[in-house]
Amino acid sequence: MDSIWLALGREALILVLLLSGPPLAAALLVGLVVGLLQAATQVQDPSLPVVPRLVAVLAALGLSAPWIGARLVHFAGACLELALRGVR
After folding, report:
1. How many whole angstroms separate alpha carbon 17 and alpha carbon 28?
2. pLDDT of 39-67, one tens digit each?
3. Measured distance CA(65)–CA(60) in Å, rounded
4. Which of 19, 36, 37, 48 minimizes the number of CB atoms within 10 Å of its CB?
5. What is the DSSP letter of 42?
């Protein structure tokens, strides 16, 4: 039974890493572009990249929400199936 919980924990960690990829990649790319633009124009305002990065993260979450939801529902179903199988 312990090996099932270990495998479930491993799958949960992999799922967290996988599902956090799209918003983190969007924030990284927009942050890099805004940083390059700030370096090119010598505008060193620290609050400038916040809004574009926030918009990019929200857009990435909006676009990947169906995929993220499907993966979470599949994982939750697998967890419930294992829990119900353990009760019987």
Report:
1. 15
2. 899 888 888 889 999 999 999 999 999 99
3. 8
4. 36
5. T
Looking at the structure of the chain, the number of domains it has is: 1
Using CA atoms, how far residue 42 sits from 4, 35, 72, in Å, is 55, 10, 43
Residue 12 lies in a domain: no
Residue 74: inside a domain: yes
> How many residues comprise the chain?
88
Segment 4-15, tens digit of pLDDT: 888 888 999 999
> What is the C-alpha to C-alpha distance for residues 24 and 11, in angstroms, rounded to an integer?
20
pTM of the model: 0.79
Beta carbons within 10 angstroms of residue 41's beta carbon: 8
| Structural domain boundaries, residue 53 | 22-87
Q: Is residue 34 a contact partner of residue 57, using CB atoms and an 8 Å limit?
A: no
